[in-house]
Amino acid sequence: MTTINGGTVFDFTQRNRPVSKSVIIEDLNDFSSIHSLGSGAKGVSSSNPYKRIVFVLSGQLECTNRTTGHTWTCPEGSFTIFPGNCTTGFSAAEDTVALRIVVVNPTEIYSILEDEKAYDLKQLVPEQEDSSVFIHILSCGNTKIWAVTMVEGKFFEAETLNSNMVYMCLEGEVKITYQDKERILHENQCFYGLKDNGIHLQAGASPTRLLIMKDIL
């Protein structure tokens, strides 16, 4: 298990830099992990009774359902869902980092999502000038994931977080005020906010897109 301190800015793609033809897996908790695949890495395959949702943070994943023979590609900034109860795997022709979450007895998955397709997170949530737009992608036990789009100047805040939260900037720029300190998130950077603390997030560019993840660490 990994430990990331609350109130810090970090980048999942830099924690375990890919090594040529190798796979490095860092467990974040019992159900989520970071997979760093070096160029030419192959053979990451498994048979799992549960669905898995995989976010490609950098590079490009080549995905395979070994049971059916279906293949598909997930470029940087996209995500996909691997089905349960069949043997699936992925490989990388270039250095690639992905966040994988095992979906155990989900209470909700965004209704338009199908297995074995690549979805572009930066385009999934439309931009609106007068409001921030949220899409709830997944609920699975304590884990929840939202995608958010804001225009410059728009903000949202919580007086007190009721859970530990990770905020990942997918596009644009985010100014975060947390424990009376300001931090700026750029693309691919994350911020870890802890339960019982307040937080204020404001978009510094149009569009600004975020992935918000509850209890993945």
How does this model look, in words?
This protein has 217 residues and is mostly beta strands. It has helices spanning 12-15, 121-124; strands at 9-10, 23-27, 32-37, 44-48, 51-58, 60-65, 71-75, 78-82, 86-91, 96-103, 108-109, 119-120, 133-140, 143-150, 155-158, 165-171, 174-178, 181-185, 190-193, 199-203, 208-214. The strands form four sheets. A seven-stranded antiparallel β-sheet has the order 1-19-16-21-14-13-11. A six-stranded antiparallel β-sheet has the order 2-3-10-5-8-12. Strands 4-9-6-7 form a four-stranded antiparallel β-sheet, with no helix packed on it. The mean pLDDT is 91.
Key traits:
217 residues, mainly beta, six-stranded antiparallel beta sheet, 2 helices
Number of helical segments?
2
Radius of gyration: 17 Å
Q: What is the overall silhouette?
A: globular
Unreliable residue runs: none
- State the distance separating the first and last CA atoms: 9 Å
In spatial order, strands of the major sheet run: 1-19-16-21-14-13-11
What's the count of strands? 21
> Approximately what portion of the residues adopt beta-strand conformation?
over 45%
Largest sheet: 7 strands, antiparallel
What number is the mean pLDDT?
Answer: 91
What structural class should be given to the helix and strand makeup?
Answer: mainly beta
Q: Secondary-structure blueprint of this entry?
A:
Elements: E1 9-10, H1 12-15, E2 23-27, E3 32-37, E4 44-48, E5 51-58, E6 60-65, E7 71-75, E8 78-82, E9 86-91, E10 96-103, E11 108-109, E12 119-120, H2 121-124, E13 133-140, E14 143-150, E15 155-158, E16 165-171, E17 174-178, E18 181-185, E19 190-193, E20 199-203, E21 208-214
Antiparallel strand pairs: 1-19, 2-3, 3-10, 4-9, 5-8, 5-10, 6-7, 6-9, 8-12, 11-13, 13-14, 14-21, 15-20, 16-19, 16-21, 17-18, 17-20
